[in-house]
C-alpha cells in the first residue's frame, strides 16, 4: 500500500504540477510558499525557483498588504478551514488580474496545522467581458444620446425650414431664418450675405444680433469674393470652423464690427451656383463641434433653395405687374380714344350741322334775323362745349407733367357761387338750384377761375346725373379752418366702388357708363387736383345707386385771410 | 324749295344735333317730332306713327339698342317703321347688323346725306 500510496502521490503531484488553468500551491503555516505549479507560473509569472520560500503576500496589491489582508485570509482559513473570495492580485510584472481564490487549511492526523493549499484562478477574461458589456452599455447610451441630439437637430432644421416655407418674400424670410438659427445654435450674431448681380461682392442682406450702429459703411458695402474668411467661404465653396479667430480679423469690416471670437460659416449653393454665405458666431470663445457645421450646412442648402425660389417668385411677380400695368395702360388708352372720339364727334357734328343749316336757309332765302340768331347761338354753344373739352384735355396733360398754374387772390366765395348758380339756372329749366350761403362772410385767398371751374363742374355734374330733374342743393359754410362747398343732388347716385373711381383720369361711375351719360371722365380728376393744389380736398358721398350724391369741396382758410368783406346778398 | 310729306321721329339727346335735324327736315316739308332718348321715343310712338325714325345710339335713360329691342316688340305696325341710325360711336357702325336697321350714318354728317336718306326711305315707304 505504501508503494501504491507513493505511486498515487506521484500521480497526484504530476496532475497538480501540470494543471495550467489554476495556480495551485502550498503555503507553510506562516504563509511562505512551499510548492508551485505550471498554472501558478502562467498566472503569476514567477518561476518556481523565484518564488518558493517567499511570503504569499507578494501577490497582493500594496494597499491590501498594509491593511493585513493576507494574514486575515490565513486566520479565516485556520479558524474555518477555508477562505474564498474574488479580488485583485498582482503578477510578477506588476500588472493586476482579477482572481478567484480558495485557501484551505491543511492539518496532520493529529489536527495540527501544517500549512495551506491555495488555488487561484485568473478571472481577468470574465472581468473583461463584464467590463466590455458595461462599456457596450455605455456606448449604447451614448449612441442613443447622439441619436436624440440628431433628432433634436432635425427638429431644429424643420423649425428653420418651416420659416423658409412660410414666407416667399426674401426680406421676411431672411429675418425669420436668422432669428431661428441664432436661437438654435445659441450664437450672438447670425448673418446671410448674398452675392451682388456682378457676382463680385457679398452684400449683407440679413443680420441678426448686430446693432444698427455697428453696421459700418464698409460692412454695408460688402466683402469681395475670396477676400478674408467670409469671402473665402464663397470662393472655396466650403464651410469653415474657427474656434478662435486670428487677431488680424479685427480689421475685417464684418468680423471686426461684430467683435466675433468664434464662428462657423457655410456657402449657400444651389445647383452648383453660389448665392452667398451664411455665418454665425459668438463674441466669447466657443468650441463649435462638427455637428454645428453639419447643421449649418444643411440649413444653408435649404436656405439657398428658398432664396432661389423667392427670387424667381419676385422676378415673376414684377414681370407680371409690368405686364398688367401695360395691359391696363393699353385698355385705358383704348377706352379713352373710344370715349373721346364720341365726346368730340357729337359737338363737331352739331356745329357742322348748324353751319350747314345756316347756309341752306341763306341759299333758300329763308335766313331771317331770328334764324340767324338761333343758328349762330347753336354754333357758339357747341363751340363752348368743345372749348371746355379741350381745356380739360389740356389740364390733364399739364397735370401729368406737374401742376396747374394758379393765380391766387382774395375772392368772395359767396359771390362766386352766386354767379355760377345764376348762369346754370338760365341754361337749365328742369332743375331747381337751391343756394344756401350761410350767414358768415366768406372771403378766401384762392384762384377764382380755378375754383369757379370746380364749382361749375360739380353743379353741372349734379344736373347731368339727375336726368329726371329736381332740386340741387348748393351750400357754402365758412369756419375758422376753412370753407366747405357742398353740392347735393337726388340723382342716380354712386354705386359702391365708384366713389373713388370718379376721381381717376377717365374714371367714370359704372352706372353713368351704363346709362350712356356723356362725359370724358376728366372733370372730377381735374377738380380734385385743383382742390389739392389749394391745400384742400374734394370727395364724394352717396348712399348708393339711385340715392343721390353729395360732392364736398373743402378749402383751408388761414385766419388772417378772413377780411371784413361785404356779405353777399342771396 | 321741295315740299315733301311724311312724318319723321328724331331720337337724339344732343341738343344742337336734335335742333339741326328737326329744323332741316321741317324745312323740307316733313312733319318732325323729337325725343331725348329711347324711353321718350316709345312714349311718342304710342300716339303718333312716323314713317321713319332717326335714332342716336348713345343716350341716357334708354339707349338706341334698348329702344330698338323694345320697338321690335311693338304692335300695330310700329315695329315695322324703318330706322336710320346716327352715331358718333365707332362701334355703332359695327353693330348695326344686330340692330336690323335700314341705314347707319356716322357723326359728323353732311346735312344733304340726311335729307337724301330720308327722301329715299319715305319715298319708297307708304305715304301718309
Adjacency order of strands in the biggest sheet of chain B: 2-1-3-4-5
Order of adjacent strands in the largest pleated sheet of chain A: 7-6-5-10-9-8
**Largest sheet: number of strands, sense, barrel closure of chain B:** 5 strands, parallel
Provide a count of the helices of chain B: 5
The pLDDT mean of chain B sits at 85
> What is the helix/strand order of chain B?
EHEHEHEHEH
How would you describe the shape of chain A?
Answer: rod-shaped
Spans of chain B of at least 5 consecutive residues whose pLDDT stays below 50 are 124-128
**Structural class, judged by helices and strands of chain A?**
alpha+beta
Notes on the protein architecture:
The complex is a heterodimer of chains A (570) and B (128). With 570 residues, chain A is of the alpha+beta class. Helix content of chain A is 49%, strand content 21%. By secondary structure, chain B is an alpha/beta fold. Chain B is 43% helix and 19% strand. Chain B has a 5-stranded parallel beta sheet. In chain B, helix 3 links the parallel strand 3 (52-56) and strand 4 (83-87). The longest helix of chain B is centred in the last third of the chain and has 14 residues, at 111-124. At the A-B interface, helix 11 and helix 12 of A face helix 1 of B.
